Amino acid sequence: MPDTLSSTVSPLGSLEVLSQHEVNRLRDTSQAGLHDLLRRCALAVLSSGNMTDDSLVLMETYHDFDIDVIQQDRGIRLKVTNAPAEAFVDGKMIRGIREHLSSVLRDIVYVYNEIQHHARFDLTTAEGTTNAVFHILRKAGTLKPGRDPGIVVCWGGHSIAREEYEYTKDVGYHLGLRELDICTGCGPGAMKGPMKGANLAHAKQRFSDGRYLGISEPGIIAAEAPNPLVNELVVMPDIEKRLEAFIRLGHGIIVFPGGVGTAEEILYLLGILLHPDNADMEMPVIFTGPASAANYFKRIDEFLLYTLGEQVRSKYRVIVDDPIEVARAMRKGIDTVTGFRRAHQDAFHYNWRLTIARDFQETFEPTHAAMAGLALHRDQPVHELAANLRRAFSGIVAGNVKENGIRAIEAHGPFSLHAEPELMHRLDDLLGSFVAQGRMKLPGSEYVPCYRLV
Q: Residue limits of the Pyrimidine/purine nucleotide 5'-monophosphate nucleosidase C-terminal domain (predicted)?
């Protein structure tokens, strides 16, 4: 049995006093309640540093863990029972973990009480969805109107080789020397490395206001606990709003080696940048990794070229094994973004100008029927094909690490994907390379495919 502790703590940060209705919903264990969601996310946060990416295994390991919200006259308290002992030092919860726990609670309460059930947010429209993402970020305090552009979104795999991890730290270090901030999915691997490097560089530059933003969603955070360096954590309600938050908030994007989740993010980003309305949009995008990752990016580039056409190459730059050049190019690109937004009188803190089609905003539930029905063929506009490929990869991510996806695969077998023959062949090659390179699961875990191509 794992070592556990029980404790009662006060939330930290911007959490306000909760109503009795909100407290009751957080305690509600029925399907309509939020207790199970809070419990799964809280356990992941309290397991920070635990090397697993399987939320189901984590829940089974700590099957007797629970969390309760206690309402008092002076505010609320959180009672955790049988929590992982590593979340405490001498019986006291580590402050960073306590902050993350408070952020999770804040966003769950806000989203489910103020966004999803409020008449002013019409989540069936593009405008309503973008407005909802803005309000969630504002509630979390991540929008800083007074700061010049400087947020670099870093994407990449949680399961990467040590050499690739060290490279992400080097890139983060050189970004930090140029006083740029880091925004990631907040998990391990390529999400942790850039923050670690930037943290050291910010200290050397005496840059005391460095930002390490982590943007996650319940299914991912339950599998990948936020790394300790994250000092601003936001939990979005689903993967689509999470991805929109990244590109509305960020001023440039760096993609490190990864697996199917990284491919999902790439297709989301490029599908949006290829939309005709975004033809003049300034958004520096760099794919980078050590020399050993050159073949990885070659495969990605070839797949993108075949599926999305030659024009896709104008939307990104590949820089291999040169952290300093990556940082210089990103600094220059963000300076261009600054000039572009000034010229168009656009906000620095939120990219309202970017057009995001509904295909990229609608929540995709990766059921077996939905996965089998995806239109994976080239007889459609490139941004629509990108959206459908993104959904296919999103479903594979769910089958790999999310509790609901894992349970669906256990009950009904692998997802089936149907595509035109040549696209199927190229998709099979790409996914097969991820498996062969160990990019689907953390090291030491045997990967059993959650999909089949038919």
A: 334-454
